[in-house]
Specification:
mainly alpha; AhpD-like; 173 residues
Length: 173
Amino acid sequence: MSIEQLKGRLPEHAKDLRLNLGVIAASTALTPAQAWGIAITCAITARNREVVDAIEAEAAAHLPAEAITAARGAASIMGMNNVYYRFLHYMGSASEYGHMPARLRMQLIGNPGIEKLDFELECLAASAITGCEMCVRSHEKVIRERGGTKEMVQDAVRIAAVLHAAAVTLDGQ
């Protein structure tokens, strides 16, 4: 499935999403590789097979295999971390859980196979979809420390918002 076919699957009430799906290719703050890596991560995080298939099909022309693997890894590791760290946030800073070691294997974060800035952008976007405030703040901070701009952050989250909305819309049909 292509993005054009995905647009065709969106109902009339979601016509704004058809236009907004162009946000991936239209990003001015992100490189094409960053935008497509973020898109793969977000599609997987949004959990809709049609969205994943369309994004991965289009992204294949823009990304090498290792970048696709890294994007899938970002979705995977954030699927775990977002649950754990959101729990810690819910429990509050005074909670005894915040002082316990996470004991979750996260080696991918240290060696993602792509530029660290790109991986952080992918992790930020996944965290925005799942609503983990601690992870969003943490990844945004690292992005900015590594020279990322507020425009890059905004474009990453914009991609996340549009792909999540497409997945929700298709799931609701």
